[in-house]
Design goal:
Two copies of one chain form a homodimer. Chain A folds into two domains: 172 residues, Nucleoside Triphosphate Pyrophosphohydrolase; 71 residues, Orthogonal Bundle (Arc Repressor Mutant, subunit A). The first copy, chain A, has seven helices and ten strands. In chain A, strand 1 and strand 2 form a beta hairpin. Chain A is α+β, with helices and mostly antiparallel strands. Chain A is elongated, with a radius of gyration of 21 Å. Chain A binds a DNA duplex through helix 6. Chains A, B: This is NUDIX hydrolase. Chains A, B: Keywords: Hydrolase. Chains A, B: It holds the Pfam family NUDIX.
Chain lengths: 259, 259
DNA sequence: GCAAAAGTGTTTACCATACACCCATGG
DNA sequence: CCATGGGTGTATGGTAAACACTTTTGC
């Protein structure tokens, strides 16, 4: 829980610390057991949910800002963030009377119409994917909950955040066709069923096990080890690991993965 | 030529009309006779060149702003603009002493350090492609020239504009693999050699004529007409036109064009 | 021995690629 | 008739896609 005075400080003094008119929204996807989730925050004393967002410090890089925002929410700082689109409809961040009342309740004071949090805001969208059990969600100063939601049952979000989420998912799925994914998302040694499940979950569709494995192996992205994982009452699958060299090259140069 | 007082108005009063800290840079590619060009502006009383840029009005959409900026430079308003990346290094728009002197020369007055044009600026990048003979280049208030440059001989540009240009070209070439291009770039009826040349020029490489035509036809993107164009001393090529239905569907859903 | 999951190989069909010769036109 | 550019078809190879049976493991 964030201390009350930190919240008030943020509302009252943030205008000196952050760039006006600009924000960053991070769509953090969490992968876990064949489910794709997204990290959402609930506003204090309101039942509105939002993406993990924040502002850019006066002398801060965009990607640094996005990294900092996600770190504040999750504790993680080794996340592969991807800028995907900037959202700037003049009305996108329009605040209702209820939102202003809400801020006034928190600060126990009056909030002027030209308050920095009420200005038109252009938001730069970033997305990232993480193994969600690694994350320790922390609310931000304006929120009292920070939780994972299943991608298919996300509620109505504030502003245009449902749209931003949809665009992020589109961008992520598009990216998967040109760059590998999985490093930092899977354990160092993983099984074919594990990486197969990861791809199926992100793409939201079934992929033929045999063809899938054949492709990753023939591209040289993963290498079979001489070890197996014991998974209880079933045949023990072999372990694989990424060929970091080829993986990084594929990240940089792009590949064609026609799943 | 822009009247002198318009320039001074822009410098002195722009802060009331535009969002601070934000700008738009447009990379306008011009296609003409197997050459790819880009529209650049030269700053007044300086030999620095830049991309076509501008600011966002207080109540204006991002894409409207980009369209307006390009229209001001080119007279065109039916351009297919594509947002591709947002650039926000804190130092990217750093102004040198010479730049400040330059503004002071134009306004014939002193420019305070916190002047709106000197603030840190995050720039939203858009690119577009046009047939360059349709364009009537007009300088902006800070520039005295607006000209096409060949993509391979672009000079050193201000700020990070060379980088923005390189990223725009990468994004354009990537997009060509997923979306068709040519509508509004070619005449309504065009020949196979014409569209073939367009693709070769944009991609910067040779494409087999026969395979190229086969692909566009088999995807149904273009349809052969029962007319030919007379091109002088050679065999008259057939005319084709886009199947707008399929073209738009391909724009929307994406296709795979592995050239 | 049975249920559940993992491992593996072959065939097919399509498509990308490479490649060369003939035709039309105006001068 | 010649120079220039346009039009067209085929053969090949690679690979994505479809598909099913066997093996392992713990209970």
């Amino acid at each position: 829980m964030i201390p009350e005075n930190e919240t008030i400080d943020f509302i009252e003094k943030g205008h000196k610390e952050f760039l006006h008119h600009l924000s960053i929204d991070c769509v953090l996807f969490g992968y876990h057991e064949h489910q794709l989730k997204v990290l959402l925050l609930k506003w204090k004393e309101s039942d509105k949910w939002s993406l993990a967002g924040g502002f850019i410090k006066l002398e801060e890089n965009l990607s640094e800002a996005a990294t900092r925002i996600l770190k504040e929410r999750t504790g993680l700082d080794e996340i592969f963030l991807q800028q995907f689109q900037t959202f700037g409809e003049p009305k996108r961040s329009h605040r209702s009377k209820a939102d202003i009342d809400h801020l006034e309740t928190i600060t126990k004071g009056s909030v002027p119409a030209d308050h920095w949090l009420l200005k038109r805001t252009v938001s730069i969208g970033y997305y990232a994917v993480t193994e969600y059990s690694k994350v320790n969600p922390h609310p931000d100063p304006l929120s009292d909950k920070c939780e994972w939601w299943e991608i298919d049952s996300v509620p109505k979000l504030i502003f245009d955040h449902n749209f931003i989420l949809a665009e992020a998912l589109k961008a992520l799925r598009m990216q998967i066709y040109h760059q590998p994914i999985g490093y930092n998302l899977l354990p160092e040694k993983f099984t074919l069923p594990e990486i197969h499940d990861l791809y199926e979950t992100i793409l939201g569709k079934e992929l033929d096990r045999r063809n899938f494995a054949k492709k990753l192996i023939s591209l040289g992205l993963i290498k079979k080890l001489n070890e197996r994982r014991s998974i209880g009452a079933h045949r023990s699958p072999f372990l694989y690991k990424f060929d970091k060299r080829k993986y990084d090259k594929a990240l940089k140069d792009g590949i064609i993965l026609a799943f």
